[in-house]
Write a structure and sequence with these properties.
mainly alpha; ABC transporter involved in vitamin B12 uptake, BtuC; two-stranded antiparallel sheet; 13 helices; 4 strands; globular
Length: 322
């Protein structure tokens, strides 16, 4: 593999890791507050449908993004109401969100567009297109630095850069702010936080809202940036891979980013392996190539993660003592 192919693979890694980064940061904020969110997949899928549907009907990608965020936040509030206010089982609620989003997206898509649950292909003005930085075309011919600048740094759409920006923002929010201190306190020892005068329910609701915001970005990216339409179950388990990345990163933003990039790299390599012959004669089965990122995800989590300790109050409804 030559140098240009390596750079293009790394560039594809960033694009493929973008929805994972959004979802992993969303799950990190939610679980740091003590709310387990298995429903990342469902919120991302609902956001993808809303973004593509609104962008198709209005011709505005920005309205599509707003719609994706709005529906994801709305579903996050439903999950929060079930888990925080009603003290329900958080895993069951998350699974219900996934099932609900998957079914309603197909029903709504069929009713609106009559295309089997899909949305029409989006025109360029209704999508987030690649941004070429100044001098990228001229730099492309420069050895080594040219391809890095033209393809790895430049050439991505806006949401890729936003996803990368969410990592330092999440780190700052969780570790350097009063909100982050209270978030961690509520996730570790809600009784002590309550005694100190912190509203456990209100803080957890805010974490759930932030989770909905970021999964909305992830959904909009899938249908209006990475692809040009919504298709059935287009998330393809990426919400669960994002959860795995969060656990792999032990609920810390920067290690979680590394895990997302690793899974994105595995996916990018799998795409490049399609149609490649081993030893010049044996062609790797397409199904094996497509399954390889998921297989390697399981192997990495099982063999290399070590002991991962979740926030102590994660998944436990808080009942205020009277």
């Amino acid at each position: 593999m030559d140098f240009d192919a390596v750079i293009l693979t790394f560039a594809a890694t960033l694009r493929l890791a973008t929805p994972l980064i959004f979802c992993a940061m969303a799950g990190l904020l939610s679980e740091r507050s003590g709310i387990v969110d298995i429903g990342l997949e469902g919120k991302m899928l609902a956001g993808a449908f809303a973004a593509a549907a609104v962008a198709s009907l209005t011709g505005s990608v920005w309205l599509g993004l707003v719609a994706a965020i709005a529906i994801s936040v709305f579903i996050a509030l439903i999950h929060g109401y079930a888990c925080i206010t009603q003290k329900g089982n958080q895993v069951v609620s998350g699974v219900a969100v996934n099932i609900l989003a998957s079914g309603l997206a197909i029903v709504a898509g069929t009713a609106l567009f009559n295309q089997g649950g899909q949305t029409p292909s989006l025109p360029k003005e209704a999508r987030f297109l690649s941004l070429n930085w100044p001098g990228a075309v001229a730099m492309e011919q420069v050895p080594v630095l040219g391809p890095i600048y033209a393809h790895l740094i430049s050439g991505h759409n806006l949401l890729v850069y936003v996803a990368l920006l969410t990592v330092p923002l999440t780190h700052w929010l969780v570790n350097e702010t009063r909100f982050g201190l209270r978030l961690r306190a509520v996730g570790e020892k809600p009784e002590a936080a309550d005694t100190a005068g912190i509203s456990v329910a209100w803080l957890r609701y805010r974490a759930v809202l932030l989770c909905g915001l970021l999964t909305g970005f992830a959904g909009a990216y899938l249908s209006t940036a990475q692809n040009a339409a919504f298709t059935r179950d287009m998330t393809a388990g990426q919400g669960f891979i994002a959860l795995a990345a969060m656990i792999f990163g032990k609920w810390r933003p920067w290690p979680t980013l590394g895990a997302c990039l690793l899974f994105g790299l595995l996916d990018a390599i799998a795409i490049r392996l399609q149609g490649v012959k081993v030893f010049g004669t044996i062609q790797v089965p397409v199904q094996l190539v497509q399954a390889s990122p998921y297989i390697l995800t399981v192997l990495l989590l099982a063999g290399f993660i070590g002991k991962a300790v979740a926030p102590k109050a994660s998944g436990i409804p808080y009942v205020k003592e009277r």
